[in-house]
User: What shape does this take?
Amino acid sequence: MRKRIIASSVAMLLLLSSASASVSAHPGRTDSSGGHTCRTNCAKWGLEQGEYHYHNGSKSSSSKSGSGQSSSSSKSSGKSSSKSSSSSSTSSKSPAKSAPAYVKSGLAVYVNDSKVSFKNVPLSYENTNLVPLRELAKALGATVAWDENSGKIEVKKGKRTMTLKIGSKQVAYNGSTETASAAPKVIQGVTYVPIQVFARGLGAGISYSEKNNTLKLTI
Assistant: This one.
């Protein structure tokens, strides 16, 4: 009796195994990995056309995984390209130009009570009044000699001689040297000098009214 029961159980197991194999398997040669790509009657076996699978019923995930990685890589590349384009656009913009350090001062200058009419307006630079060199020298009756190579300027009036240099705050006159608050400079082709040091070097008396922004020179 016991032998019959065991024999029946074995037979049932064999039938179930056979049924499972018939469901999961279908015609087609397998490759070295034990699977192949479905080409015919794919829907009948619950597969998609061209889907790679194994004959134990499992499906290959390589196709979907590869597709996801490709999509992710494409998105990442797109973001990188966008950032690069944005960075290039930003760097191509020219830097903003800084404002000039000098401004129109509105200073009125008088020599022996006669107002000087400047062709080039007086300027303010680092809180120092600058005026056109040649125009002021002419108003004071002085002569100007400029050495273009060395940048030195020599101004004479009577027995007085004054020496300046473009870009240097050192001013020499009558055997002494003074440090000006601003150096002579060329602005838009015009040489400007600090007016008070210039006038003092030529022996002129100076009177400044801050209220009226007026400088009176007496010589």
In short: The radius of gyration is 49 Å. Confidence is low (pLDDT under 50) at residues 18-25, 60-68. Residues 62-92 form the longest helix (31 residues). Helices lie at 2-24, 62-92, 133-139, 195-201.
